[in-house]
Automatic annotation (TrEMBL):
It comes from Lyrurus tetrix. GO terms for molecular function: proton-transporting ATP synthase activity, rotational mechanism. Keywords: ATP synthesis, CF(0), Hydrogen ion transport, Ion transport, Membrane, Mitochondrion, Mitochondrion inner membrane, Transmembrane, Transmembrane helix, Transport. It is a multi-pass membrane protein. SUPFAM superfamilies: F1F0 ATP synthase subunit A. CDD domains: ATP-synt_Fo_a_6. GO terms for cellular component: mitochondrial inner membrane; proton-transporting ATP synthase complex. Belongs to the ATPase A chain family. It comes from the Eukaryota. It is found in: Mitochondrion inner membrane. This is ATP synthase subunit a. Component of the ATP synthase complex composed at least of ATP5F1A/subunit alpha, ATP5F1B/subunit beta, ATP5MC1/subunit c (homooctomer), MT-ATP6/subunit a, MT-ATP8/subunit 8, ATP5ME/subunit e, ATP5MF/subunit f, ATP5MG/subunit g, ATP5MK/subunit k, ATP5MJ/subunit j, ATP5F1C/subunit gamma, ATP5F1D/subunit delta, ATP5F1E/subunit epsilon, ATP5PF/subunit F6, ATP5PB/subunit b, ATP5PD/subunit d, ATP5PO/subunit OSCP.
Amino acid sequence: MNLSFFDQFSSPYLLGIPLILPSLLLPALLLPSPGHRWVNNRLSTVQLWFIRLITKQLMTPLNKAGHKWALLLTSLILMLLFINLLGLLPYTFTPTTQLSMNMALALPLWLATLLTGLRNQPSASLGHLLPEGTPTPLIPALIMIETTSLLIRPLALGVRLTANLTAGHLLIQLISTATIALLPIMPSISALTALILFLLTILEVAVAMIQAYVFVLLLSLYLQENI
């Protein structure tokens, strides 16, 4: 059976049931359960320190009204981070390589930030569509350009996350396939490609973490514009 390089991005099925939902719930099972004591063990301490660091980085640019989003944004970045990292393991499925899932995350959250701004400060939110001091003949064109740039924000969020993770997975698969194919023919070249594969894997771990952070950071910046 010949498999395409893109078969790894198709959602797996078991008895006709898609397994994308269990793959989304799996990262939550890896987190240590909270106990009744302040400090349970070293893993819980590291977890709390990491969550506090992420929350501080995301909430620093926002005012007090934006701190209501702290739980949502922190939970989102932790979910994306665990899903991206677990997707680098062999024989695993990465849900964040699906554009439909990323758009399902980006579109409602972007719309929530937009509606928050239109409800709390409609004049300031609509004022972003027209920069101050714009010449009168350019007003219709600039409004159309700013409106288009506003509407493509969720698409840019989803496509950025999907494209970066998909490209990384494809590169890893291509180089690993070349490593195995060259092993009986040219062992020295195969060892070199294996070294490249190791370095690429380290790079993809960094990309997985950075893309999760960038996704949530851009959402927090969109929120900052509307509060």
